[in-house]
Amino acid sequence: MRKATWMTSVLGAAVFAAMTAGTAHAQACEATEFSSKTGQVYLNAETQLLQEQNPAGALSELNKLRSMELNCYERGAVLRLSAAIKIEQGDSAGAIKDLEAAIQAGAITGDDVAQTYYNIGQLYLRDDNVVKAKEYMERWINAGATPTRDQNWQMAIIHQKLEDYKGALPYAEKVLASDGQNADRQVIDFLIFLYDRTGNKAKKAQLLERLLQRDPNDRKVWDAISGDYFAANEERKAFEVQKAMYLAGLLKTEDELMRIVNFYNRFNAPYEAAKILEKEINAGRISPTMERLELLANLYQVAREYDKAIPVIQRAAQQAKNGKMDERLGRSYFELGEYEKAISALQTALNKGGLKEPGYANVLIGQSNYELGNREAAREAFQAGTRFADGRRAAQGWLGFMSAEVETQRQFAIFEASVRVEGLKNEKKGCERLKVLGENLPESCLTLDERLEAAEAQLAELRQN
């Protein structure tokens, strides 16, 4: 036979004695002892259970008692012993029924009532009836019991299984208070779960910080903190957490690294985003795809770091089948004032094709030529730009400007020529006065008619053009 150890460990030695020895007095029962006949049969049943470790034999003797006429004291003793036997036989439902009947009959009184509620709760737990277990455990506490640390833990788990997270919290918090700074990860994680489900973000944050103090490299904790900020739509704080994780070397995968790049860009730090992206591409942790290179070039350009964008764009242009990256390269050269390189790159872009703004590319070629003093080449490029909707307005503006510039230069040349003619005419009048006075004429007067004729011819020619 197996030893009667489960009952003494779960129900407690004192309670077992109260259940089996018949020492408790029923409140409404004046009888206090067995008769000689029933007492011997009860003693035989108790001996079978406790000494012979024979629950079946004990039950057989107990059934003899049931057939006899019993007083109230004897009936209570039979119920208690019957419950003990059924516990040993694994019949939790039967044991619970006997214990409840014993309480109702007044066979269990005083402090033993609270302990019996606890025992019934444990029996329900053994049968996975969490609802009834919770009911009797609460009866036990309401009867004045003070749970131990482990009993508080059990109560917290019972409430959690029933999804009563608010009900679980007080018990779990008592466990944490009992454990103090030595609380293990299981307890802290459980409370973090409860705080998360009950919306107590402040206390959850305190526990997460406590875990980080223990292990600053715990990814799960970092992710939990960041996730909370995301859930609360506090992206800036989530960004700061992600940044700290990156600096600590906790972000490893390409998706994680791209997340921090995108965070920097989103919060108006394109240069920092570009530096991280380029660093991770060079380290091989982010793949140098066309998409990634284009993003890197774009970040540098937005940050107006055109010199840093150029090597990236050149690399991307070599991979590209269309002229988009060559066009971007040409724009970068143009911003840096390297107009010859800009013209070359933009022309390559047009030759490759696939541009969204071919007209604007022609306009940039025209502007570059204009800056180099190549007026005719500039005009040709602007005229090419007028053939595309995206560049037509700008190209026409430049052509108008250049035409106005030529006309201004012509008018200025006419003005200068007119001033020169008038000057020569005045000089001629002076020479004629000297001649009338009979004075010797200066050598300049001798060539005056020739110079005046040439100046008037030049002025006429300018006015005709």
Automatic annotation (TrEMBL):
SUPFAM superfamilies named among the record's database cross-references: TPR-like
Signal in keyword set: yes
Signal peptide: which range, if any? Answer: 1-26
What's in the keyword line of the UniProt record?
Signal
What protein am I looking at? Tetratricopeptide repeat protein
